[in-house]
Design goal:
This protein has one domain: 3-Layer(aba) Sandwich (Rossmann fold), CATH 3.40.50.150. The longest helix has 14 residues. The radius of gyration is 15 Å and the shape is globular. 27% of the residues lie in helices and 30% in strands. Strands 3-2-1-4-5-7-6 form a 7-stranded mixed sheet. α5 links the parallel β4 and β5. With 197 residues, the protein is an alpha/beta fold. It is built from 6 helices and 7 strands. The structure holds S-adenosylmethionine. The site of S-adenosylmethionine has 20 residues, from α3.
Length: 197
């Protein structure tokens, strides 16, 4: 499904970074892991700011476009094609992890999220924006499946070892390519790994 979507020559989520990420990028240190990176807009943005970034995604086509975008902007990014159901990030390694519109079924989150916590260095930051459960039935983006939509409660339960620096649900305008197209309900989270974990 994702390879098909990305077969379009156009960048379907645009080439500009997610605006929540752009607003808070100054809080992030490298190396950065970006899960479900897609066509590279967020990884390339962070690399342009001097950060070392690994973008992981299941779509080879998406990550090829990510590398083309990096080349066109004169920066390097690392990419890895992997199913997040099986991906194991390096332990105690990342200064930051980003998860932008990375909607995963509960079984994948249950396995992956503890591994993400483990892969952050103490003090490291996880920055996440996802469509919230209030987005169900709206046609401005995100999966039409409540189990894959997020909430503050799910974030609190699923990232117990991160201290929330910001955790909110809100409606906001998102115009990021042709699939994210207007007022949308989202959850935004910036969590910091506790020093004793
Ligand atoms: C809505 S797109 C977001 C892409 C990117 N984060 C952005 O903001 O432009 C969701 C991405 O999740 C990836 N994805 C979904 N399920 C995945 C899985 N199980 N393993 C790896 N990638 C997955 C898709 O390939 C797709 O690139």
């Amino acid at each position: 499904m994702w390879d098909e979507r990305y077969a379009d020559k156009e960048y379907v989520y645009g080439t500009e970074p997610n605006t929540f990420l752009a607003k808070h990028a100054d809080k992030l240190n490298g190396p950065v892991l970006s899960i479900a990176e897609g066509e590279g807009r967020n990884a390339v943005f962070l690399a342009t700011g001097g950060l070392d970034v690994l973008g992981v995604d299941g779509s080879e086509v998406g990550l090829q476009k990510a590398q083309q975008l990096a080349q066109s902007k004169g920066v390097n990014i690392h990419t890895e094609v992997a199913d997040l159901a099986e991906f194991t990030p390096k332990e105690n390694h990342y200064g930051a992890i980003i998860s932008i519109s990375a909607h995963l079924p509960p079984a994948i989150r249950q396995r992956l999220y503890p591994l993400l916590e483990r892969s952050l260095k103490p003090g490291g930051i996880l920055l996440l924006e996802a469509y919230s459960e209030d987005q169900l039935g709206k046609e401005t983006g995100g999966p039409n499946n409540i189990d894959m939509l997020m909430s503050k409660q799910k974030i609190e339960n699923e990232f117990p070892n991160l201290h929330p620096l910001l955790l909110q649900e809100l409606d906001r305008e998102i115009h990021e390519g042709k699939f994210h197209t207007g007022i949308a309900s989202v959850v935004q989270f910036i969590g910091q790994k506790k020093h004793n974990k």
